[in-house]
Amino acid sequence: MYEVGWNVGEGRMKSDVNELEAALGHAFSRPELLECALTHRSLAHELAQADLSIQAAGDAEAAGNMRAAAQEDNERLEYLGDAVLGLVVAEALYAAHPEWREGELTRIRSGLVSRERMAEVAETIGLGKHLRLSRGEERSGLRNKSTVLSNSMEAVMGALYLDGGLEAVRAFVRSQVMGEAAERLALELRSGAALGNYKSALQERMQAAGAGAPVYRVKSESGPDHHKRFLVEVRVKGGAGERGKPLASGMGRTKKLAEQDAARRALESLDGAGSVGAPSDDNADDNAFEEPSIS
User: Fold this and answer.
1) Is residue 79 part of a domain?
2) Which of 92, 157, 258, 263 has the fewest CB atoms within 10 Å, i.e. is most exposed?
3) In CATH, what number is assigned to the domain containing residue 136?
4) Is position 170 within any domain?
5) How many Å apart are CA 217 and CA 233, to the nearest integer?
6) pTM for this structure?
7) How many Cα atoms sit within 13 Å of 12 on the Cβ side?
8) Together in a domain, 132 and 230
């Protein structure tokens, strides 16, 4: 068992990566690649600044130790991993679905390699706790942000490719990226749900029914700044002075994700009701639909 060795400075986290390797299905022959993939630019910058300070103080031994700890951040590996991931997913879809045409393959690949999907995969394998962050970003809660998780997941894919080749990436993609997610996206494709773009699907549905346009508004938000939860309501756009008929509410870590969730719930509700219905007045019942809890 080995540990990612970055205990330079007080409070720096040490992480046993055997657990991460097990989740990736690959033991790294060059662990420095994985270490680089886990290194956020904030830590690389912090170590570089510390190196300069130590050199200025004239402590040659400490400066040498700091330079040994400092290394490149994961942004170049992120670039490589994004390209490799797209290739492997495209290859898998091409082989598994000879009946799909280019447009269908492209749309489902986009869903499988999206930032949202990569953040989900990162959470599933517990990637966040292994990230190498500066002390300041550690305190800010950056470790759990979806953008950081998705970017780091792509960087890990780049490291996996350099250490184990395409087959190592293929194995991970089959076990963690494809599976139920690919089937769900294929089902959405067949049902016309716009592959997760529920806002577009709801807009098209309401236009086809001759109803008013959907409008979204934030009803409430909760949680600290680094872990917000938004509650968004979608309504049929009413006439002058009218609020319109409420359709559904949705939750999400961002306003955009909450809007997508609200649109998804509205589509499910409309499928059950059979029609969009006409806009209502200011006395519309705000509790006429099921509203998710924000707790």
Assistant:
1) yes
2) 92
3) 1.10.1520.10
4) yes
5) 5
6) 0.58
7) 17
8) no
Q: How many residues does the chain have?
A: 295
Counted domains in the chain: 2
Q: Which of 51, 73, 82, 138 is catalytic?
A: 82
pLDDT at 38 over 90: yes
- In a shared domain, residues 28 and 110: yes
Would you state the structure tokens that stand for residue 112, as one six-digit string? 């499988």
Same domain, 88 and 213: no
**CATH code where residue 210 lies:** 3.30.160.20
Residues 140-185 have pLDDT tens digits of 667 778 888 999 999 999 999 999 999 999 999 999 999 888 887 7
Would you call 82 a catalytic residue per the annotation?
A: yes
| From 137, 154, 259, 261, the catalytic residue | 154
Say whether 154 is catalytic.
yes
In a domain, 287, yes or no: no
* Segment 222-265, tens digit of pLDDT: 988 767 889 999 998 876 666 778 999 999 888 888 898 899 89
Calpha distance 38→42 (Å, rounded) = 11
Task: List, as one string, the DSSP characters of the chain.
Answer: --EE----STT---EETHHHHHHHT---SSHHHHHHHTB-HHHHHHHHHHHHHHHHHT-HHHHHHHHHH----SHHHHHHHHHHHHHHHHHHHHHH-TT--HHHHHHHHHHHSSHHHHHHHHHHTTGGGG-B--HHHHHHTGGG-HHHHHHHHHHHHHHHHHHHHHHHHHHHIIIIISTHHHHHHHHHHHHT-GGG-HHHHHHHHHHHHT-PPEEEEEEEEES-GGG-EEEEEEEE--STT----EEEEEEESSHHHHHHHHHHHHHHHHHHHSS------TT--TTSS------
Average pLDDT over the chain, rounded to whole?
77
Pair 166, 23 in one domain: yes
